[in-house]
């Protein structure tokens, strides 16, 4: 056992930086790479008895690292997809929270807000929907609508003002 441990320690003395760089090249995130690096080393020490060929330690550890990175990326992709769904749901809540924070409304129902948005003129409705529902940034909306950012900002502001007037009637 002590011999195998020294094999891993010898590997680390020679390839410590290479292993970290390899993991970082896949994840592109320093903190994640550090965590995965530690997981790989822990796993290597825990499974050191499984090393058959002392010459294959490098490929064995790098394969473990690659597999950990792939697992992480899969998990991250699934989390990102879940978060995108949540953001779309929260987009509507964002509009509701905006008007609640501005104390324009009490607890106005979401469907009343949506109904009011649909009544807005197209020049205000489109930027409001893109900003709150699709969670696009002002720059992205400007590019999509082929408008200056200042125009997008003013249309969102005016759209909100028109919504406030419409929603006060509901309240």
TrEMBL record:
<comment type="similarity">
    <text>Belongs to the sigma-70 factor family. ECF subfamily.</text>
</comment>
<feature type="domain" description="RNA polymerase sigma-70 region 2">
    <location>
        <begin position="13"/>
        <end position="77"/>
    </location>
</feature>
<keyword id="KW-0731">Sigma factor</keyword>
<dbReference type="InterPro" id="IPR013324">
    <property type="entry name" value="RNA_pol_sigma_r3/r4-like"/>
</dbReference>
<dbReference type="Pfam" id="PF04542">
    <property type="entry name" value="Sigma70_r2"/>
</dbReference>
<dbReference type="InterPro" id="IPR036388">
    <property type="entry name" value="WH-like_DNA-bd_sf"/>
</dbReference>
<keyword id="KW-0805">Transcription regulation</keyword>
<dbReference type="InterPro" id="IPR014284">
    <property type="entry name" value="RNA_pol_sigma-70_dom"/>
</dbReference>
<dbReference type="InterPro" id="IPR013249">
    <property type="entry name" value="RNA_pol_sigma70_r4_t2"/>
</dbReference>
<protein>
    <submittedName>
        <fullName>RNA polymerase sigma-70 factor (ECF subfamily)</fullName>
    </submittedName>
</protein>
<dbReference type="InterPro" id="IPR039425">
    <property type="entry name" value="RNA_pol_sigma-70-like"/>
</dbReference>
<feature type="domain" description="RNA polymerase sigma factor 70 region 4 type 2">
    <location>
        <begin position="111"/>
        <end position="163"/>
    </location>
</feature>
<dbReference type="Pfam" id="PF08281">
    <property type="entry name" value="Sigma70_r4_2"/>
</dbReference>
<dbReference type="InterPro" id="IPR007627">
    <property type="entry name" value="RNA_pol_sigma70_r2"/>
</dbReference>
<dbReference type="InterPro" id="IPR013325">
    <property type="entry name" value="RNA_pol_sigma_r2"/>
</dbReference>
<keyword id="KW-0804">Transcription</keyword>
């Amino acid at each position: 056992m002590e011999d195998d441990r020294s094999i891993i320690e010898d590997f680390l003395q020679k390839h410590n930086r290479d292993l970290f760089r390899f993991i970082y090249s896949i994840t592109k995130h320093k903190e994640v790479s550090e965590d995965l690096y530690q997981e790989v080393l822990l796993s290597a020490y825990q499974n050191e008895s499984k090393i058959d060929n002392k010459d294959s330690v490098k490929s064995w550890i790098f394969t473990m690292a690659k597999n950990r990175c792939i697992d992480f990326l899969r998990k991250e992709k699934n989390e990102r997809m879940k978060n995108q769904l949540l953001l779309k749901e929260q987009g509507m809540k964002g509009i509701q929270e905006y008007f609640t924070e501005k104390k324009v409304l009490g607890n106005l129902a979401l469907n009343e807000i949506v109904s009011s948005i649909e009544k807005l003129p197209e020049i205000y409705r489109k930027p409001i929907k893109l900003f709150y529902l699709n969670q696009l940034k002002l720059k992205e909306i400007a590019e999509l609508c082929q408008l200056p950012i200042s125009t997008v900002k003013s249309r969102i502001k005016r759209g909100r003002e028109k919504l406030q007037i419409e929603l006060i009637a509901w309240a």
